[in-house]
Amino acid sequence: MTVYLDTSVVLRVLFREPRPVHLWGKWDKAYSSALWRVEALRTVDRLRLSGNLSDTEVADLARDIRIVDDTLTIHPIDERILRRASESFSTVVGTLDAIHLATALAVRELENIDLFLTHDLQLGTAARSVGFDVLGME
User: Fold this and answer.
1) Is 13 helix (H, G, I), strand (E, B) or coil?
2) How far apart are CA 126 and CA 46, in angstroms?
3) Sign (positive/negative) of CA torsion 93, 37, 78, 131?
4) Considering all CA atoms of the chain, what is the largest pairwise distance in Å, rounded to the nearest integer?
C-alpha cells in the first residue's frame, strides 16, 4: 500500500496524542512533501519557546523527526507544485495544506496513492474533492 501523509499524522504519533491512524507504519511506501519536516520542527520549536517542552523532549523529538524523515519518500517542493498550490481548489484549503495537496497530486502522476492520510478536516476534504481516498479525519 502506498500512502501520502501530511504533518498532522506524524505529529499525532510523535506527541502520543489520541487516535493516531490505525495503519501507522503498515504501508509499503509513504510519501510526503519536504514541507512536513519544516512544519514538524517549527512545531517543536514553538512548543520549546512557549515552555511546553523540556530540552530532553526537544532532543528526543528532533531525533524522532529525523528517523521518520529517513523512512519517508520526500517529494521536493518545486515551482510546478507551488504554481498548482496557488491555483484554486474546489474546497477551502490553506496555504501549507495546498502545498501538501499539490505535492500529493504530483506524486499521483508518477505512482498510485492508495490513501491520503491527514487529521486536518479541511485538507482531507480538499483531498477527497480531487479523488483521494482519505483516512484520519475521524
Assistant:
1) helix
2) 27
3) negative
4) 43
Reported pTM: 0.94
Q: CA 132 to CA 130: how far, in whole Å?
A: 6
What's the Cα-to-Cα distance from 133 to each of 19, 100, 122, 126, 127, rounded to whole Å?
Answer: 19, 15, 14, 11, 8
- Average pLDDT of the residues of the chain: 97
Neighbours of 49 (CB within 10 A): 9
| Strand pairing class (29-33; 134-135) | unpaired
Residue located via cell numbers 504501508: 27
Q: What would the grid cell of residue 98 be?
A: 495546498
What secondary structure does DSSP assign to 27-61, as a single string?
-SEEEEETHHHHHHHHHHHHHHHTT-S-HHHHHHH
Per-residue pLDDT of 54-84, as tens digits, reads 999 999 999 999 999 999 999 999 999 999 9
Topology of the domain covering 2-135: Rossmann fold (3.40.50)
∠ CA 34-106-79, nearest 5°, is 65
